[in-house]
Amino acid sequence: MRYDPLVDTMTDRSACWTFTESRPREMFGLIESIWHFEGSVPHARERHLPNGLIELVLQFGPTFAFMKGETREHCTATCLTGLQTSPTIIESPASRVCVLGVRLRPAGAYAVLGTPLHKTSERIVDLEDLIGDAASDIAERCSVARDGEARVRCAARWIAERIARSPGIDARVAWAAACIDGSHGAASIRQLEHHTGLSKKRFVAAFREQIGLAPKRYGRVVRFRRALGLIHSGGSSLTEVAVTAGYHDQAHMNRDFRRLGGLTPGEFLGTTRYSPTTTLG
After folding, report:
1. 3 state SS of 45
2. I need a labelling partner for 124 at 20 to 30 A (CA). Which of 54, 64, 65, 178 fits?
3. How would you class 48 by CB atoms within 10 Å of its CB: exposed for 0-12, middle for 13-18, buried for 19 or more?
4. Which CATH number fits the domain 8-165, given the four candidates 3.40.80.10, 3.40.225.10, 2.60.120.10, 2.40.50.100?
5. Burial 135-167 (b: 16+ CB within 10 A, else e)
6. CA distance 232 to 240
7. φ and ψ at 33, to 5 degrees?
8. Helix orientation angle between 171-182 and 200-211, rounded to the nearest 10 degrees
């Protein structure tokens, strides 16, 4: 499998940090992006909201800490964040860091990991516990690369190799997940189940194994992500956002924000953020 070599790099004016990112077209639908950050950390704490993605992270230096509810732990140097249905707080380990991340869509994560994804959901786990020595392989390959761009390319090759050797996700599950994504969470789960030809029990079990969450729960996360994006982009009232995102009304959206994000839409609107699913502090 080939991968798109296009890599974009940004450096701030004072040269305090460099951010490199690639969105491999050959792995569209499997990978959202591969990124590398090196330099001074602009914010010590970030609040990450559920986004329907699974992230593989390599840290070259001090490791980050994360908080999930009342639990606070240090991430291992190579780790993976499964699908989340509640916010996670990430704390920077030092004033300067060097870290690479691969944002995987569930189908891509299943192909790369080759393990049931529901075991990683709501967790941040040691990558070695999931794929053994292969975790050291990607870490070693990337650590000797000369710069962030080279590390991103190296990670892309490693991911492509893993996907090429994988039997991949069940086509019926992949289709159902794509329908949920394409409809922003509005697809009828009952109809999807019917079209796959699987019983309700088998459909839910296969979906949890290969996507990470039960279909209805995954649909809620996808709809929530859609609402976050609409609010982040601005130009619409919260009532309009609720209707566009597929909620019954604004009260329905408010409840989902509390359950999935730990805040109200109004509170999210007032946060400082640099992406639809990441707020500061």
Report:
1. strand
2. 178
3. middle
4. 2.60.120.10
5. beebbeebeebeebbebbbbbbebbbbbbeeee
6. 13
7. -170, 165
8. 80
CATH number for region 171-280: 1.10.10.60
Q: What percent of the chain has pLDDT over 90?
A: 82
Q: What is the DSSP letter of 28?
A: T
Specify the DSSP element, H or E, that contains 230: helix 215-233
Residue ranges, comma separated, of all CATH 1.10.10.60 domains in the chain are 171-280
Q: Which residues contact 48 (CB under 8 A, 6 or more apart)?
A: 84, 87, 88, 89, 90, 277, 278
Tell me whether strands 17-22 and 124-126 are parallel, antiparallel or unpaired: unpaired
User: Taking the CB of residue 267, how many other CB atoms lie within 10 A of it?
Assistant: 13
Read off the pLDDT of residues 229-242 as tens digits, 9 standing for 90 and up.
999 999 899 999 99
Confidence class of residue 38 from pLDDT cuts 50, 70 and 90? very high
Residue range(s) in the chain whose domain bears CATH number 2.60.120.10: 8-165
Please name which of 89, 104, 30, 85 lies closest in space to residue 225, comparing C-alpha atoms: 85
**Strands 71-74, 273-275: parallel, antiparallel or unpaired by DSSP?**
unpaired
Q: Give the number of other Cβ atoms within 10 Å of residue 8's Cβ.
A: 12
Task: Give mean pLDDT, residues 30-48.
Answer: 91
Handedness of CA 177, 226, 117, 105 (dihedral sign): positive
- Rounded Cα distance, 65 and 158, in Å: 26
Residues 253, 227 contacting (CB under 8 angstroms): yes
